[in-house]
Amino acid sequence: MEYRTFGDTIIARIDKGEEILEKVKEIAQKEKITLASVQALGAISRFTAGVFKTKEKEYLANEFTGSYEIVSLTGTINTMNGEFYCHLHISAGNEKGEVFGGHLNRAIVSATCEMVIRKIDGRVDRYYDEQIGLNLYKF
Fold first, then answer.
1. Which pLDDT does position 89 carry in this prediction?
2. Are 86 and 28 within 8 A, CB to CB?
3. For residues 132 and 55, is the Cβ–Cβ distance under 8 A?
4. Strands (E), the chain
5. C-alpha of 9 from chain center
């Protein structure tokens, strides 16, 4: 992975074999990011995406292996209990044009991932909401 900072924006290249969430965390901690928006595209060989079942208050994870293009990867970096927290969603298409996605749990880059992280001057923490079953923004 390599990246450069231009004002409040970080342009990153995540390389073949690297795991996307690990690299986002590495950048965020190194750059002391407490609030940011994230967007990316690229190619991945394996990914796990979850879908939250609201009634049961649980995630179901789906694992995918093969050749996939990231159609959209978007989300936020912020904090929970003052520590790094990242919430990303992914949509990725296969060679047939079928697209799968959800809450990103893991993704391994097969060629490259081009990411833009826009730092936001501020801090928004999260808390676990018992009623909803998710980590929500805490203002």
1. 98
2. yes
3. no
4. 2-6, 9-15, 36-53, 58-80, 83-93, 99-119, 125-129, 134-138
5. 16
The whole-angstrom separation of Cα 109 and Cα 87 is 18
**Does residue 57 sit in helix, strand or coil?**
coil
Of 62, 54, 69, 66, whose CA–CA distance to 129 is shortest? 54
Predicted confidence at residue 44, as pLDDT, reads 98
Q: Model confidence over 32-59: pLDDT tens digits?
A: 999 999 999 999 999 999 999 999 999 9
pTM: 0.95
What is the DSSP code (8-state) at residue 97?
S
Please choose, from the candidates 2, 25, 24, the residue with its C-alpha nearest in 3D space to the C-alpha of residue 12: 2
Retrieve residue 100's tokens. Answer: 């799968």
Q: What is the pLDDT of residue 101?
A: 97
Residue type, 45: S
Q: Which residues contact 122 (CB under 8 A, 6 or more apart)?
A: 34, 35
